[in-house]
Amino acid sequence: MKVNREILTRGALELLNEVGLEELTLRRLGTALKVRAGAMYWHFKSKEELLNEMATLLLADAAPGLLPARKQSDWRAWVAAFGEGLREALLRYRDGARMVTGTKLTNTEYMRTAETIGAKLIKAGFTLRQCVVLLSTVYNYTLSFVIEEQAVFPRPGVRSEQYDLEKRTQALSSDAFPLMRQAGEVLFDRFDRRYKEGLTLILQGATCQLDARNKDARVPASISASSPHARLRKKER
């Protein structure tokens, strides 16, 4: 079988769904694709190299879905589309979030989309630093959220026995942990709802930050420059 890096990488993503991250190896991939070990190691010297390529391909394939359907939407819709699209892409693969975490991009396809979103935020009034912090916050929130989500549901609709809500509730004393007993349904169920609630909190914080910046822009320069907040922001930049 004649292979290239993309064929091997897509095969690895399919195998990931079958065996999970721990059981994914170059040898196992070669066996699944009927590719000789020499050919495998010619393309990828290690599992780390393979994971870098898998994460890059996942994000590149996801890129169109990280943008809002209506390009005229305001910046909040762009940031929400980025987060929700990323979560959806990670959930397509078993251990998708764990696989992507800590990897390095091998091309710039995903960066093109990030550049487009960033330009929209700059146009909306964010500074470069605020833009980078906002998008990286959404990115990191989404990765960590999906890691937890996929621990509870390793496969869509199939709950891990380790996250049995009834057993958890019974194990916690109602006298010592009245709130934690009730928190289980929020923490380990209805992930769609909780993800959107968390993303809304991030957007609300960013809105306050942008509103404050716009308010400062309307203050006369002589007053604005002398305020403690202005001096602090100058140091941050």
Report on this model:
With 237 residues, the protein is mainly α. It folds into two domains: 1-45, Homeodomain-like (Arc Repressor Mutant, subunit A, Orthogonal Bundle); 58-207, Tetracycline Repressor, domain 2 (Orthogonal Bundle), CATH 1.10.357.10. The protein contains 13 helices and no strands. It has helices spanning 5-19, 26-33, 37-43, 47-62, 75-91, 96-100, 109-124, 128-152, 165-171, 178-187, 191-218, 221-224, 228-236. The radius of gyration is 22 Å and the shape is flat.
State the end-to-end distance: 54 Å
Q: Which residues form runs of ≥5 with pLDDT under 50?
A: none
Q: What oligomeric state best describes the polypeptide chains here?
A: single chain
Radius of gyration: 22 Å
Total separate domains:
2
Reported by name, the CATH topology of the largest domain is Tetracycline Repressor, domain 2
> What's the main sheet like?
none
Structural class by SSE content? mainly alpha
- The CATH architecture assignment of the largest domain turns out to be Orthogonal Bundle
Q: Fraction of residues in helices?
A: over 70%
Query: Quick one: CATH class of the largest domain?
Result: Mainly Alpha
Number of DSSP-assigned strands: 0
Strand content: under 5%
Average pLDDT value? 92
Question: Total number of helical segments?
Answer: 13
By CATH, the superfamily of the largest domain comes out as: Tetracycline Repressor, domain 2
Q: What string, H for helix and E for strand, traces the elements in order?
A: HHHHHHHHHHHHH
Tell me, briefly, the overall form.
Answer: flat
